[in-house]
Design brief:
The complex is a heterodimer of chains A (about 190) and B (about 240). With about 190 residues, chain A is mostly helical. Chain A is built from nine helices and no strands. The chains are: A mainly alpha (about 190), B alpha+beta (about 240).
Chain lengths: ~190, ~240
């Protein structure tokens, strides 16, 4: 693959190149997503060394399992970050029961995230930015704890001292609102 | 919540299922329902899309200097290939089980092989089979019924990846089963039906995804209720 052309390829094409062992595609893929992947792993682990280990492992797994990516299931960014999230959660030594501010995790007040000069495809996620910012604080907190840290409703209930049923309702309400946003987009 | 649950309850639980945070018997009952309900599966899939796209909204952060080079160096490392790399001690269990699976399948029964082969012969056989098939590894998981273990599922990572289902002769529920793959990222993939039990003590299935992506194989009766499950605790024995 021509090294000068590879930087303009779509996320999907770069992933194919990564999976096939193309070094230029691999370099472009890592450069395009490294800031996003490290940002997520650091948000979860809050330790630069551990976050780098997790981010490296996420890229290695993406390379190893590139053929398993299914474009119908979501964007390459979502797929890669799901891997990074799962790796990070598995590296957490124990449940962290200190308060976590959703604003520390989410870039809700920014416009499109920076991708090291490369435009990253974030169309679907951008549709969620405003609805997520409009969620009631308690719903957004429950959602962030579940999505980014893998907390169960019961764990959130224990953490926040809120009845289990209330937490389940918060998560469900938040997810329903956000799903409807993506669904409206699909139906257009 | 015990026993079977319906669409209304599963729809309530769908967000937690999609986020992978549903728990215990509630989760088990919902997953049984999903085996036979395409509408609820679609709903969970839609919520899963929300989960993935939310992660994209995480705040970015510059990685430490040299991160890109270190990742690329890892990607450039020679692939961990059982054909060229000495076998580490922790791999031997996998080797033994996998080799036994291959030879047992070839013999159509395997009980004699299980009783007499030694580890070295098994390891040699395993390496030879992987070399012939360009495969990466084998996994094995117990096939569990309501009253305990009824057989074994062996899964092969290669191109294509496939699974071999071995049923114990005493398995009482002879019949045709719907087959479903539950992937580690929460997808539900339906395969062709298979006959199990009676004269059909072993069945091969081609997997539509890498073996490392398979969390569970489910075998359901006509009412959609999963009666046999094989859970793969390890995605890749070399990891």
């Amino acid at each position: 693959m021509d090294a000068s052309l590879v930087w303009n390829l779509s996320d999907e094409s770069l992933l194919v190149g990564l999976g096939s062992g193309d070094p230029d595609a691999a370099a472009a893929f890592v450069r395009r997503f490294q800031r996003r992947v490290f940002g997520l792993t650091f948000s979860i682990l809050r330790d630069r060394g551990a976050a780098e280990d997790a981010a490296q492992e996420a890229f290695v797994r993406a390379w190893r399992h590139a053929s398993a990516y299914d474009v119908r299931r979501g964007s390459v960014a979502a797929w890669l970050l799901t891997i990074a999230r799962n790796v990070s959660i598995n590296m957490l030594p124990a449940r962290r029961f200190d308060p976590i501010d959703p604003q520390d995790v989410l870039a809700l007040d920014s416009r499109r995230p920076r991708g090291d000069g490369i435009e990253v495809r974030v169309v679907d996620s951008e549709l969620l930015r405003e609805p997520l910012a409009r969620l009631p604080d308690d719903q957004r907190r429950a959602l962030v704890l579940a999505v980014f840290y893998g907390f169960t409703a019961r764990e959130i209930s224990d953490l926040d001292g809120v009845p289990l049923g209330t937490v389940k309702t918060r998560i469900r309400s938040a997810m329903v609102k956000l799903r409807s946003q993506l669904k409206v987009s699909d139906d257009r | 919540m015990t026993g079977e649950i319906g669409c209304d309850q599963v729809r309530d639980l769908a967000p937690e299922l999609a986020l992978g945070i549903a728990e215990g018997h509630e989760r088990d009952a919902a997953l049984r329902h999903l085996t036979g309900c395409a509408a609820c599966r679609e709903l969970v899939s839609e919520f899963s899309s929300v989960d993935g796209e939310l992660l994209v909204l995480a705040a970015g952060k510059d990685p430490p200097r040299g991160f890109e080079s270190r990742v690329l160096a890892r990607l450039a490392e020679p692939s961990r290939d059982s054909r060229t790399e000495p076998l580490a001690p922790r791999r031997r269990w996998v080797v033994a089980v996998a080799a036994a699976a291959v030879v047992a399948a070839a013999l159509g029964g395997g009980s004699v092989f299980w009783a007499t082969a030694d580890d070295r012969r098994l390891a040699d056989s395993y390496q030879a089979v992987l070399s012939q098939g360009q495969g990466d590894f084998f996994l094995a998981a117990p096939l569990q019924g309501s009253d305990g273990r009824v057989g074994t599922v062996f899964a092969y990572q290669g191109d294509p990846s496939w699974a071999m289902v071995s049923i114990q002769p005493s398995f009482p529920e002879e019949g045709r089963f719907h087959v479903q793959v539950v992937t580690r990222d929460g997808r539900y993939l339906t395969l062709d039906d298979v006959n199990l039990g009676g004269a059909d003590q072993a069945q091969g299935l081609q997997l539509p995804v890498d073996t490392s992506a398979v969390q569970e194989l489910r075998f359901a009766e006509s009412d959609g209720r999963a009666v046999l499950t094989a859970t793969f605790d390890t995605a890749n024995p070399w990891d």
